């Protein structure tokens, strides 16, 4: 993948970006330097429900931005607050202080799939398409594309509660991508994926970035770090950003991916919650 020129942004961090923003119809519009999503000075503390139990301070003056065509990783230990941060970015959780500015549409893939057990995969997609206000032609086109890219065509008429965990997990990002959002926020999206689907996921991600989608991914997977343009690390409430030098980011084909000898998935396991493997 050709990396565009680095530009300096609102947060003062050099980032990669595309020269155009996809508008969801296949056409493009001129890019601006404004981030697709920008959070500044976020504070979040969970109050304790129990007397004498401590409150949990999760975010302390956290700032983050994601631009069009940028792939951003969010990393940190279990319980460091990554999901809390993402929920605030999406708007499903309110911060105590700070601001979030959103430009364009957002797709969100929560850590736990929010799907209806009794619907089939196709019915699920139809339901969300209705909510997004997508035409039936566009919906069917998107469904065919996503099912092909993530490899679940044969399960379109299977009920959600009868899918394997890995196949259910494929429906989750599909719902988030159905309306072709400007920004895609994914909370550990590939837990349960087999190796082929994991590669297909990154292949899809790279195509979306090429089209101008800004993507934020919560990942526990150390081997994924060189895929990101920028990484935010959350530790003790502090969010710090680091940027890879131009040309360092690897794509799906090449080093760090399918040729990564460290990746045990090639033996046929599935990816677990911490980016390790279970299986085969
Ligand atoms: N609704 C809540 N009420 C009280 N505390 C909460 C609530 N949600 C999360 N927490 C606490 O806030 C902290 C951050 O949780 P969060 O789920 O954001 O972390 P995380 O980095 O996403 O974790 P993981 O990597 O395990 O998914 C944890 O200590 C968690 O126990």
Explain how this protein is built.
GO terms for molecular function: ATP binding; ATP hydrolysis activity. This protein is 24% helix and 27% strand. It has helices at 82-90, 121-132, 136-150, 165-177, 195-211; strands at residues 6-8, 14-16, 20-22, 28-30, 37-46, 56-66, 71-76, 97-102, 106-109, 183-187, 214-218, 230-235, 238-243, 270-271, 277-278. The chain has a six-stranded mixed sheet, sandwiched between helices. A hairpin with a 2-residue loop joins strand 12 (230-235) and strand 13 (238-243). The radius of gyration is 19 Å and the shape is globular. The model is unreliable at 1-31 and 252-268 (pLDDT under 50). Adenosine-5'-triphosphate binds next to strand 6 and helix 1.
How can the largest sheet be summarized?
6 strands, mixed
Distance, first to last CA? 31 Å
Bound molecules: adenosine-5'-triphosphate
Walk across the major sheet and give the strand order. 9-10-11-7-12-13
**Share of residues in strands:** 25-35%
Number of strands: 15
**Into which percent range does the helicity of residues fall?**
10-25%
Helix-strand pattern, N to C?
Answer: EEEEEEEHEEHHHEHEEEEE
Structure annotation, total helices: 5
- What class, by secondary structure content? alpha/beta
Cα Rg: 19 Å
Which residue ranges are poorly predicted, with pLDDT under 50 across at least 5 consecutive positions?
A: 1-31, 252-268
Q: What form results from the Cα inertia axes? A: globular
Mean pLDDT: 80
